[in-house]
What we know:
Structural class: alpha+beta
Mean pLDDT: 94
Order of helices and strands: EEHHHEEEHEHEE
Number of strands: 8
Amino acid sequence: MFPVENGHVKRLGADDAPALQSLLERCRDFLELTHEAPRPGAAEHFLTHLPDGKTLEDKFVLGLYVGEVDELSGVIDIVRHWPVKDEWIIGTFLLDPTRRNAGLGARVHRDLERWVRGQGGTGLRLVVQVQNPAGLRFWQRRGYAITGQTIQRTATRENIIHLLRKPLDA
């Protein structure tokens, strides 16, 4: 899909489910904080879950591979033209715990932003749960602004979430 410093990003599919499931298990800390611990089959759900009115053609599950080891180091779930035309929503931006806090997320986001802009995207959106203040700081440093709050209901909990948006310059 696009290069990143010292690696690449590719679109994941059903054949990548075992590697994605392993990454989700390694990222248990984040998933338990925001949703729930990954269950068996979580990767398949991750690959196919869509917002209402969207199709798999609009969904990109992007695998991040960095360094010399060809292991999945991160994943980005992003959907184009949602909730409005020409804006994209990042559903998940997840890095392996061994890859966090070293600037990788900021660099990958910069490359993702460039790619989305090249696809005609004019803005990026995402949500951050209130119990994740470090995540909120990360996104605000990337230029996202809070546009509101709402309730997120999952199978096992309710979260108050911040709605964030960043316009993309042409």
